[in-house]
């Protein structure tokens, strides 16, 4: 339910100028009933000037009369055609000052792990500008050497549902274009829930890729099948060199 402008000042005016119950006023302005009672006692909103909701096109006199006659009647904000759509957020997301320094790390994470996202999508997710995204994407940012990629959800810059929605839109666009996706790209283009449910594919380290079937022996024949395994002693009974033979002959010479 939409709330009136200047809720506390509106509550002050309703307490001073009507006989509407505290509960009705509290429900209308979005405050607690005890706060409204505090306003009536002068303990809350001291010095706040009342804001007339009738003169400011937020309530009608008929609505106030109904509420005064029936304590169970709930006040309804007057429909204002000019305010339709104003609740929708326009432009880049507002980022608090305390989190603005984290935006480059979030942008680098999105560019690295979700390169399919358009700059406009990244701008909406973390509340930044396209030139900043482009500088990080091209690694021309002034502080690129010190930026580490961090998940924007972990930084509190966006919600996981918003990130999943953006990724799903990118997946739909990729599929419409008919591009061929690798396994890594396919995993990046699904939501977090879908990715966690997928089976983990066995991965072969790049350093030994292609050597999984390598062998030093003939693959067709196995020496263990023929019983031709060499004796362990044969590795120590190596043939003697000619120099060793000469030494043995000299040792047998009686003249020595």
Please specify the SSE layout and strand pairing.
Layout: H1 7-17, H2 22-29, H3 33-41, H4 61-69, H5 103-113, H6 119-126, H7 130-137, H8 152-155, H9 160-177, H10 183-188, H11 192-197, H12 223-226, H13 242-251
Helix pairs in contact: 1-2, 2-3, 5-7
Summarize the structure.
The protein is mostly helical. Helices cover 44% and strands 0% of the residues. The longest helix has 18 residues, at 160-177.
Structure description:
The mean pLDDT is 76. The protein is built from 13 helices and no strands. The termini are far apart. α1 runs antiparallel to α2 (22-29), α2 (22-29) packs across α3 (33-41) and α5 packs across α7 (130-137). The chain has 2 domains: 7-83, no CATH class; 91-197, no CATH class. The chain is 44% helix and 0% strand. With 256 residues, the protein is mainly α.
Keywords, separated by commas or semicolons:
about 260 residues; 2 domains; elongated; DUF1013 domain-containing protein; TrcR
Q: Estimate the strand proportion.
A: under 5%
Helix count from the secondary structure assignment: 13
Average pLDDT score: 76
Specify the oligomeric state.
single chain
Low-confidence stretches: none
Order of helices and strands: HHHHHHHHHHHHH
Outline the biggest β-sheet: none
Distance between the termini: 118 Å
Shape: elongated
Percent of residues in helices = 40-55%
Strand count: 0
Count of individual domains: 2
Q: Structural class, judged by helices and strands?
A: mainly alpha
Biased composition (Acidic residues): 244-256
Pfam families: TrcR (PF06242)
Protein name: DUF1013 domain-containing protein
InterPro entries: TrcR (IPR010421)
């Amino acid at each position: 339910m939409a709330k009136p402008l200047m809720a506390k000042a509106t509550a002050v005016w309703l307490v001073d100028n009507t006989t509407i119950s505290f509960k009705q006023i509290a429900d209308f302005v979005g405050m607690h009933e005890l706060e409204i009672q505090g306003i009536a006692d002068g303990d809350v909103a001291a010095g706040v000037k009342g804001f007339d909701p009738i003169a400011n096109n937020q309530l009608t006199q008929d609505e106030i009369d109904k509420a005064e006659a029936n304590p169970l009647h709930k006040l309804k904000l007057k429909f204002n055609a000019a305010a339709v759509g104003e609740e929708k957020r326009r432009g880049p997301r507002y980022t608090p000052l305390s989190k603005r320094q984290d935006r480059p790390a979030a942008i680098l994470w999105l560019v690295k792990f979700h390169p399919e996202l358009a700059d406009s999508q990244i701008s909406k997710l973390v509340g930044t500008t396209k030139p900043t995204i482009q500088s990080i994407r091209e690694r021309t940012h002034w502080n690129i050497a010190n930026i580490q990629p961090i998940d924007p959800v972990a930084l509190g810059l966006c919600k996981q549902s918003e990130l999943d929605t953006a990724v799903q839109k990118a997946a739909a666009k990729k599929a419409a274009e008919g591009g061929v996706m690798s396994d890594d790209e396919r995993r990046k283009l699904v939501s977090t829930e879908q990715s966690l449910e997928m089976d983990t594919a066995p991965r072969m380290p790049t350093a030994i890729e292609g050597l999984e079937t390598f062998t030093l022996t003939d693959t067709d024949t196995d020496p263990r099948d023929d019983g031709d395994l060499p004796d362990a002693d044969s590795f120590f009974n190596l043939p003697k060199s000619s120099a060793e033979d000469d030494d043995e002959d000299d040792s047998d010479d009686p003249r020595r």
